[in-house]
What we know:
- By secondary structure, the chain is an alpha/beta fold.
- It has helices spanning 36-40, 47-69, 88-105, 114-120, 168-178, 185-193, 218-233, 252-256, 263-290, 305-318, 336-344, 350-356; strands at residues 2-7, 13-21, 24-33, 78-84, 109-113, 136-141, 146-153, 156-162, 294-298, 323-325.
- It has 2 domains: 2-125 and 331-361, Nucleotidyltransferase, domain 5, CATH 3.30.420; 136-327, Nucleotidyltransferase, domain 5, CATH 3.30.420.40.
Amino acid sequence: MLILATETSCDETSAAVLQVEHGQFNLLSNIVSSQIKIHAKFGGVVPEVAARMQMETILPVIDESLIAANLKLKDIDYLAVTFGPGLITSLTVGVETAKALAFALKKPLIATNHLVGHLFANFLPNKKISDIKFPALGLIVSGGHTILVNIKNESTYKIIGETLDDAVGEAFDKVAKILNLGYPGGPVVSKIAATGNPYAFQFPRPMAASKDFNFSFSGLKTAVLYTVENIKKNKGGVVGFLHEDCLSEASSAEKNSATPPNLINNICASFQKACVDVLTQKTITALKKFHPKSFLLGGGVAANPALRTRLQEQINKNFPDIKIFIPELRFTGDNAAMIAAAAYFQTKNKTQLTKLKNNYKKLKAEPNLSL
Length: 371
C-alpha cells in the first residue's frame, strides 16, 4: 500500500509517501517547505502570507516527494490530507489540492486529523505497526495545543485534559518575545535555558496541584513578564530576584559561582523548568489513573530536550512496564509523514473505505477540529 499525504495546517507545506507492507511502515519521502524566515520578521505566523506561499509551493512539494520516492501519481493507492485543526486559509490550500487530485486520479481520499498525526509520528520512520501497544496515553504539546489523550486503540481517542488558555508552545513564543529573542521562541528559549540556572527564579506551576488533568500557562508567562519588568526597573539588579529557597536543589557550583550566570539564561531555564514540571506531573498522574501499555509524546514542543529527558526519567522510574515512544526530532514539527501514518489506520475500516472513494465531493477544512 502506498499513501501520498499532504500537510498545510499552519505555515509549513509538506508532502510524504509512506509504504505499508507486511505490517511495517516504510517512509519513502517526507518533504517539508518551511516559512520560518518569512514569518520571523513579523514575530509570528501571518495567515494570509502563509496560505499564499502554500499555494505557490504545494504542487512542487508533492512533485518532489514523488521524485524522492521514485514513484508517479498513478502508483499511489490512497491520498491523505490534513483537514483540521489549523488555520482555515492554510488548511483550505491542502484540502482543495487533495480533492482535485482525488477527482482527477479517481483515488480514495483520507481526511486526517492533525492532532492524531502528531501522536502517530511515533510510528516513523520504519516501525512495525505492532510496536505500539494499546491502550496508550498521549501528550500533545505544540504552539496551538497542550492535550492529554487517553487512546483506547488506533481509532478511539478521548481528551482527558487540555490547556484552559495558552498552549505551552505559545507560552514559549511569548516569553521569547518578552525577552526579545525572536521567533520561533521554543528552540531559542530551550537553547539559552541549557546554560542557565533553572532554580534562579521561583516561577509558578499553574494548576500543578489541581485534581484534573487540565493545564494553564498564561499565568506563568505573566510571571516572567513581571519579573523582567522588575529587573528593568531596578536597572538589572540581581538582589531581590534570586530566590534562595529555590536554589536548594542547585549544584554548589551554581550557588557559589563568583560570576552569576546571565539573567536571561536563568529566566529561560527557570521558565522552562516550570513548564516541564507541570507537564511531567500531570502526565505521571494520568499514567497512575489509566494504566496504559504505552506513552506517546507528540507536537513541536516534543523537540524540547529537557521535556524529553524528564518524561523518560520519571516514567521509567514510576512505570517501568510502560513502553515510551518519543518521535525523532524531524517528526516533531508539522510534516506530512505523520499524516500518512495516521491515515493508514482509516484504511483498515471497510465501511470507511467505501466512503473514502467519494470523499472529495464533500470534504471541507475544519479549523476547530478536535479529537
